[in-house]
Design a protein that fits this description.
The protein has about 400 residues and is of the alpha/beta class. The chain contains twelve helices and twelve strands. Pyridoxal-5'-phosphate binds next to helix 3 and helix 4.
């Protein structure tokens, strides 16, 4: 049996007619830049997230970049973030001449550890840290209650890298807002949230795309200007922006896919539950060959954050990521069995060569350990139960060797 890591052909088979019709409509309209498809998607995604403003952009990377530009993050500024994420999280900070300040991750959620974060903020006596950039990795929110508490305490803006987490939910800030104790969607809790529509994300286009969502109208307006070269009005540039516009062909396809998103999240969550049960059934968890991914129980966090909404994060499983023993041998074995898998990510961000010698001897043991121990298995919505049984059987076979 062949089990790919992701199979977009399955999804296309039931969306193809609708997509072709919508794309044809955009082509026939001859509105190829911005226009009604982009603004409709902006409204749809903002409403889905429970916020007022959505701004379509060219990619998840550009969503992060233009958000930081709107905050006027520049040379010498520091941005507090996680060392365990896709490169773009750090890349956008570096491209603005700013400096990423890392704190280690929580080993269970793989997300930034707010306790370590608090320690770094206390030491920042010169107030060089200008923003907090948490990532909701693999489709699970970071601890936003604790993060928002720190952000309020230090008056820092929070830009959520929700590229992998559109539709994920978690408790929101208990302070400073009318949304006390409520659960909120990823991207709607900080000052702004950034989504990616890269094809492998839960809501993926037929090419690149992204969006910034925010409750802050002024910020949204600023981002709209920046994504058009900073022009306001046209041909008058008080600031330097770029071309970060979302393509209407992507927007029209994404509008169709958005109507399936909740159903796809449910299928991914069911698949995760099925893997968990199968791995336990095969004794792989009890024998410590594997550590299963976990939706964190926010109410059990040991920090002093006041958690009103007790319960577990609503994890959307953009990736199903396990810790495994003998990882590299297991990967080779899975390849031989035609089972797709991937390492997200083999290096922590502070270990990347592009940093040169500017970050001497940094060490984040949990991020490095995660980079060395984890693999992602197929979890896409159309994955069948038979395929999952096959994957688990083959992994069990590997550990019997
Ligand atoms: C995918 C991703 C991005 C970048 O999104 P693109 O649309 O590929 O530019 C940024 N951050 C994280 C965590 C991602 O997973």
């Amino acid at each position: 049996m062949k089990v790919p890591l992701l199979d977009l052909k399955q999804q296309l088979s039931y969306l193809r007619e609708d997509i072709l019709e919508a794309v044809t409509r955009v082509i026939d309209s001859t509105t190829y830049i911005q226009g009604p498809e982009v603004s409709s998607l902006e409204q749809d995604v903002a409403a889905y997230c429970g916020v007022e403003n959505g701004v379509g952009v060219s990619s998840g990377t550009d969503a992060l970049l233009v958000s930081l530009m709107a905050l006027e993050i520049g040379p010498g500024d520091q941005v507090l973030t996680t060392p365990y994420s896709f490169f773009a999280t750090m890349g956008v900070v570096l491209r603005l001449g700013a400096i990423p300040v890392f704190v280690d991750i929580d080993p269970v959620s793989f997300n930034i550890d707010p306790v370590a974060m608090a320690e770094v903020l206390v030491r920042d006596s010169e107030r060089k840290i200008k923003a907090i950039l948490p990532v909701h990795l693999y489709g699970q929110c970071a601890d936003m209650v604790a993060i928002m508490k720190l952000a309020n305490q230090y008056a820092l803006p929070v830009i959520e890298d929700a590229a992998q987490a559109i539709g994920a939910e978690c408790p929101m800030s208990a302070e400073g807002s009318e949304i006390n104790g409520q659960w909120g969607k990823a991207g709607s809790i900080g000052l702004a949230g950034c989504f990616s529509f890269f094809p492998s994300k839960n809501l993926g286009g037929i090419g690149d795309g992204g969006m910034v969502v925010t409750r802050d109208r002024a910020l949204a307006d600023k981002i709209r200007i920046l994504l058009n070269h900073g022009a306001s009005p046209k041909y008058y540039h008080d600031q330097v922006g770029g071309n970060f516009r979302l393509d209407p062909i992507q927007a029209t396809v994404l509008r169709i896919k958005l109507t399936y998103l909740e159903q796809w999240h449910r299928a991914r969550r069911e698949n995760a539950g099925r893997y968990n049960a199968l791995f336990a059934e095969f004794g792989l968890v009890q024998n410590n060959f594997l550590v299963l991914p976990q939706a964190v129980h926010m109410a059990k966090k040991q920090d002093n954050s006041a958690v009103n909404g007790a319960g577990k994060n609503y994890h959307i499983y953009n990736q199903y990521v396990l810790r495994v023993s003998r990882r590299d041998a297991l990967i080779n074995w899975l390849r031989l069995q035609d089972i797709g898998c991937e390492v997200y990510y083999p290096l922590a961000l502070h270990q990347q060569k592009c940093l040169g010698t500017s970050f001497p001897a940094l060490s984040f043991p949990q991020a490095e350990k995660a980079a060395a121990e984890t693999i992602a298995l197929p979890i896409y919505p159309e994955l069948t139960a038979d395929m999952q049984v096959y994957v688990v059987e083959k992994i069990a076979e590997f550990y019997r060797q």
